Known about the structure:
The chain is of the alpha+beta class. It contains twelve helices and seven strands.
Amino acid sequence: MTRARADIARTSGYFLVSLFTGVFWFSLLVPLLAVSVGTAVVWVGLPLLALTGLLARGAADIERSWLRVTLGVDLPRPYRPLPEGNLFSQARGLLTDPATWRDLLYWVIMLPLGIIEFTMVMALWPAVLALALLPFYQQWLPYHFEVDLGWLGTWVVDDFLSSLPVTALGVALGLVLLPLFKVVARGHAALARVLLGPSRTSVLSAEAQRLHASRARGVEAAEAERRRIERDLHDGAQQRLVSVAMGLGRARGKLDSDPDAARELIAEAHADAKLAISELRDLARGIYPSVLGDRGLDAALSSLAARCPIPVSVSVEVDPRPPTAVESTAYFTVAEALTNIAKHSGATEAQVKVTRTDSSVVVEITDNGHGGAVVRPGGGLAGLADRAATIDGVVVVVSPVGGPTVIRTELPCAW
């Protein structure tokens, strides 16, 4: 209830101010627009027209901030980047941007809309207060009210008790005004989204660019992973297996002439074979750990923490279980982060916290190291961001010098 009162108070405050902002910007921008268009034929009006567009943008920026505070409407700036070059090219870019003209249209509409909203606040809320508080000041009024109720007689409002039904009427009117003001506020917010926010075309274009960049980062991450697996196979298990084959070949040659040496070679080959199996197991764990598929994130991250050289506390609350792609990304995000912490942070302890919201999984890794971590192209943190981007995830790194460092990854559970 407190939040509802705060919302209606902010909405009413916005409606009160909207008249003055509407009158001010209408009185400033519309005459400037008329004069600049009228004198554009002699080129004098073109600089004035650019100035008008610039003022409209500034007014729209202020209005977007005010809408965010009062009506809770968050509108990103919809403008195209101004072209580089001289003032003429920048002015042309400003005036050919449809968002500039939508700003001007908004301030033209705001004059009559502001009058309506201001009138609603100044007429309706005082009426509610006057009706609701009538019993408390009725006795000081120089007159009384008489209401003809037909066959029920006449209702005379001249004292405290006879005024109580009027209070009920005022409360009822106030309860009706609450949803009415909310509807008007939603309508104003919808108008602001259309005129002050980005157009649907620009939103779709930005989304397409984001998806293209996400796909490119995903391809790069997959290629880097492929190269890592190939390198690990070539430098690790493959070399071990070659050593096993060579050892067994030498043992076969000495089996008849020197059985003792052959047994030593077979023992060495056996040891190399076990090392190769261990390296292949580690490699398979790096592709997709079996414990993650069998027992979920809690057990998999606890296993990672147990192998970390510094103490790591793990808290996992992901009920219901997220999709496999989200689990895998969360696991490898934590694995890479713990590796970086152990190598570079100088930390003595770390914490891993994984929580589930309605639409995403949030992973937070915190350490008490010296901080100063920066996302650099090709670095470990950039790799985390690239991996998360494959499923439209977002990585935020907060690492002031002196620590602590917090890596927060939000992974959507639906695409």
